[in-house]
Amino acid sequence: MLPDALISTYCEYKKDTDSIATWLASTAKLAGFPDHLLSSTCKTAGNANGNGGRLKGKARAEAKKKAKAQSTNTPQKQSPAFTSGPKYIIAIKDFIILAEFLLEHSVPIPHSFSVILDRVIASREGFGSKIEAQGENLDQDSVAKHGYFVQSSPHFTALMPNTDDAPVTPSIDNLSNKFHGLAVYEPSEEFLNAPDIERPTRAKDDPNTYEAEAPSSLEDAFFAPVAILNDMDRMRSRVEWIWSNYRAGLFDVTSAAIATNTAIGLVRDMMDDVLPIFDAHGGYHRMLQKFYVVQCLNKGFAIEDLFMENKDNFNYDTYDVAERVYLMAYRYLEGFAAVLEPNQVPIYKDGIFGTYDPSSNRSTKTGLAKFEDDRALVMPYFSELITIVMGLPNWPIEDEFFRGMAQIHKTKQIPFYSVFATQVFLDISYTLKEHVDSGYHTMVTHMNFISNDIKEHFSFHRDLKIVNWPESNDRVLRKVQTSIEWLAKDPSLQVQNKLCQRMGRGPRVGAGHLLFRMSPVMSGLTLYFFRSQYHEIGLSLADAWGSLQYCEHLYNATRQHDPLLKRWTDMDVVRTLLDMDSFYVGSEAPRTPDEQFKNKDRRKGKRVASKAGPRGIKPNAPVHHMFASRYREMVTFSITAEQLDQIIDLSMYEEEFDEEGGLLLGQIEDSKKVEEKKRLREQYNKGIRRKGATGGSRMAAECMIKKLAFALQAETLEFSFPYVQMHRWCWRLLRAVKEACDPLLRQIYGPDYLSNETELPFVVGYIFLLASGADRGKQTMQPLEEATRALEGMVEPAGDFITERVLGEILSIPINVVDESDK
């Protein structure tokens, strides 16, 4: 189910109903309602009473008399029977007897109870009559049961105090969306943005748990999909919004892919609450069929128009209705699942299901033409997925679509989230059109760069080793490189061509890598898989060798010594991405030679350095790191309330708008906000939860997806920065500095001031030592001046190589660097 911090229509309705049951039962017991009478009107998890029915006639009257008599003669204290804390299931139709008992005992009713009750009544009032008006007959038990919500209103109203001074509650809007005639009353935007109304809870010191009885009627089975489909519709719209903005250049493919896959996962969690209701009425596919019929009748179709004598037994004039209720997506999966056989991968000839023309105007097409487009897209993609599921068991990356196909193969059952994933796949295809393979090209470009950079790393470090960088770390790098090379060979196509050869067919033709070309989600998640490891390795490499930290210290010192020195753009970007915390205690760069020398965290090695080494680099992409276990280790993942707080709390970027109103992302500059973000990050790193989290933050699920997409995008530069390459650049700079300062350092400290090249960072320590005069009065600025000239000699021609050439041109991640000191 969804975490408490996320709002969905049906989950809110269920929570509201449970809170009413909880407050009524717990408060009545505290007021003296006898235990055995409560047990006769309720059923517990361990001791259910017969039928859980409501007392009637003489039995009900007698129960009320006994309850009144016993509550009058018995002190209102907790009964020993409650110490075990059982779980009580409260029948909805028994709410009235509890309410009447409270009325007779003049128990005050909290304002929150009134608000929540009104919300529940508004959600269900008249819903059954609307269903019957659409042609579905409800059983009388369902009508009677849920009529009690409406019938209960006068009883509860009598309990309510004068609420003229009560807080004003937000209005509840009637959202009559595309599901005409079956309106669901849901919280408006005003309501969602207003302060939360706390639901009524059980009485103090009551250890028991209470829930309203599980809904199971046909009316419930209709109410649930209306509520869920409305939420899913908003989620679909949000996903389309993400990919429209991806096409416009706002989102990176990895950010869009993670946000999309998380959205599908949230829909899966939403469905967990309602699938048992559907199962009681033949399963969700039967309910989709019923809902489709109701909607078609509402559109003016006759029942005999819906079932044709063609081989599909389907009227394609109703395509739009079927697509909106996910029946089309289900039919595609159902048809594919029907042909699956053990140990046989279904491989189709290219073009056998037709072709899709992305330049065509879909809005003018007939239902049949839209179906043919869908089929031309989904059937080849289904085949790609099942090929990997059956033929490549060690496939390293999965999204929810892939996960669903694996479940279909294993259980022969179609999970509902696979239906939603299928529809999202089609939505993305029609949103991106001819640009749908752009994610694949981005993935290939970045992965080739990573592979080549790792190759350069091994060449650079062939004879350069350090104890801080064991062979096990190099094995990780080699595994990343070989995995990229393996994927580049298109293993899925290799499996298919082997099967074609066995069947006497020729090899498949086409561009190859169909899985990635057709799915920017899979392309984005695959890029995340490799980018995450490359990012982690790069920071570890720089940390082990001290290259970034010591070069930053030297750059800072030379800028303090010569403010007119040309800026080193690449290092300026690194300083911004990693924060000064990664370089200095107190997050403030030292200004004088004495301060630079005394900053103990910047030095390592003998004589002039701490054995602890340089200050450790702190990764600065917390939202990206949140998904590492999900996409690198395939750990089952459902977003938690705490992670929702992290998404909101830890991102160092915020939405901005340009002069024309266009949406931008900018780094937070407000010093108070920055300090608060850093404080929260330190708390999360130490495992300390923010006070009040969660809910502190509550929002609709699709709103969370929007925030997630922005948070991921804001971290894209830091997560994509080539720290492995930056390490090599810094090491070359240290070589140049050592060469420039070597004559002076030999003269002062002798030829053995360095044992080997791995001690190059010590040169920076010697420079600071001499500039500060801390070494027994030996003070000279000459080594710093020589280092300044060496640094300028490298920065002048190529100080922005990574920023401009690598990120801007090769990886298409442009950076607009603004020098605040030049303003």
Automatic annotation (TrEMBL):
Spans annotated as Disordered: 48-81, 589-619
Superkingdom classification of source: Eukaryota
Span of domain DUF6604: 12-276
Biased composition (Polar residues): 70-81
InterPro entries, sorted: DUF6604
Region forming the signal peptide: none
UniProt name for this protein: DUF6604 domain-containing protein
